[in-house]
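User: Please run a holo structure prediction.
Assistant: Happy to. Please share the sequence and the ligand.
User: Here you go; the ligand is 1-O-phosphono-alpha-D-glucopyranose.
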Amino acid sequence: MSSLQNNKYPNKITKAVFPVGGLGTRFLPATKSMPKELMPIIDKPLIQYAVEEALAVGIETLIFVTSASKHAIFDHFDPMPSLKMRFEQQGRMDLVEKVDILSTEVKTVFIPQGEPLGLGHAVLQAQSLISADEMFAVLLADDFIEAPQNPLHALLECAQKTGQTSLSVEQVPSERISSYGIVSPKQWQAGQTEIEAIVEKPPRDEAPSDFGVIGRYVLPARIFDVLKQTPADAKGEIQLTDAIKTLLQREGAHAVQLDGQRFDCGHHEGFVMANLHVAMKDPALRSKISDYLNEQA
Ligand code: G1P
């Protein structure tokens, strides 16, 4: 049992928000009718990896903020008893295990976002499900993470210890700085730091550092009131980063450095790399892929 699942922390964080209403335009035409979060790393969709990561640290309620065209995500997590029964009758317990994704204790809630008006707007839709004194996690499924320890573990610990916004970060190559929220760390201590500033997708020469925000956040419910006051950016989107900046100035916020590897599957390169990374861990696939790559070299 993880330390987060015992009573060490009085304010256990039990809810996670998954914004899944984005259009996924970078992956058209694949995402014309399929949500980008269902794109698989080999045989498991990105959203399932993120959900499993959350469940592993004691999250009990999964809140999907979704758009009208994303029924497939609901279907993916639906128990589908008829399919399960068919596999059971065939004695295919291996397949039963694969389709039986969520235990009956896990609560799932699907909230429509209405219009895709940005990440901040998506998070705001979860307000009615989070109480005023609660903290909650936000996971962006297109950030696929491979790490020796579940990255949410350190993030939840930091948030529970400080009671403040906590974000996962990693150093990003300079050409990727303008693709992420960038924080300016105060002083690192055991992989954690208070942050001095945060800015959404700055030009590389204006960035306060090269520490980019990964799609893993723990936020206090206070963020909702801030989000309501946060103006839309030039693209008409309400940015979560802008609301975090306001909270940071008011009460502080923390960054936790990722001890592991992050693949940004919102881009072709990250998505292909993530698939290769997972494939190379399978001994049978590994040798075939190595042979293939050697032949191509
Ligand atoms: C979002 C956030 C950004 C963050 C990134 C992590 O950007 O706005 O601050 O660094 O997720 O993946 P998006 O990927 O939606 O463009």
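The longest strand covers residues 211-220.
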